[in-house]
Amino acid sequence: MRLARLLTPDGPVSGRYEDGAIVADDGRYEVGRDGRLLPPCDPSALYCVGRNYAETLDQMAYERPEEPDFFIKPPASLLAHGQSIPYPEWTDELTYAGELVAVIDERCRDLAPEDVPDVVRGYTILNDVDALDQQGRTARKAFDGSAPLGPWIETDVDPTNLDIATTVGGEQRQDANTELMLFGPHEIVSYLSERFTFEPGDCVAFGSPANPGLVEPGEEVEITYEGVGTLRNRVGDGK
Asked: Which segments of the chain have a pLDDT < 70?
């Protein structure tokens, strides 16, 4: 089942996504006619793991981490599927990275890996936008509009063996599978739950496969995870 959120003139509605519409408790809302998609959840934080694919480590000359290496994006960084990604005037190196995301369904902490599936609502997709020429991860990755998320949450998917494809301007840039992760999804959620109390809607992103790279104003980024969907956003002409 796909779960989505829509911004209507009367406020947000949530429900099942079916054939271009949101089926909510009070009726059916057509995407586009009745409103636009919102990020599919409302997290208090997005916990993002880096350096989680061996090929990415080789490409970026990173050392292999002994435990999950993470940073946090705030709610202000969120963008919905279809919204324009801002190109800040203070950077000359904006990059994309296509990542799988677990959405937490209940308040929890101190989870064993085998208990993680019981607290995950489902999976969605993140474009981990990065201003690569800035100093420090917070400056690079936590600015407004740096976390396109969506288009929906898929509740029925096994995250451990999914094909990944990212295209920029119609050219394929990333091609991998989630089985290549150094730390698996359940292991990562468990590890973070030892350090943070998760709230409903919180997100855990599992890192980017090889070939994250630069984007230019006007280019469209499409990130597809098998069985989940495709997140699509165009880079704005803000520079």
From this structure: 56-62, 238-239
Nearest CA-CA partner of 72 in 152, 147, 134, 132: 147
CA–CA gap between residue 71 and residue 48 (Å, rounded): 5
Q: What is the DSSP string of 62-92?
A: PPPPSS-EEEEE-GGGEEETTPPBP--TT-S
Radius of gyration of the chain from Cα atoms? 17
Predicted pLDDT of residue 165: 97
DSSP 168-221: ETTEEEEEEEGGGBSS-HHHHHHHHHTT--B-TT-EEE----S--EE--TT-EE
What does the pLDDT look like over 44-71, one tens digit per residue? 999 999 889 877 556 656 677 789 999 9
Report the distance separating Cα 82 and Cα 231, nearest Å: 8
Task: Report yes or no on whether pTM surpasses 0.90.
Answer: yes
E strands, 11-135, are 11-18, 21-24, 27-30, 36-37, 46-50, 69-73, 78-80, 94-96, 98-104, 120-127, 130-131
Phi, psi angles (nearest 5°) of residue 216:
-120, 155
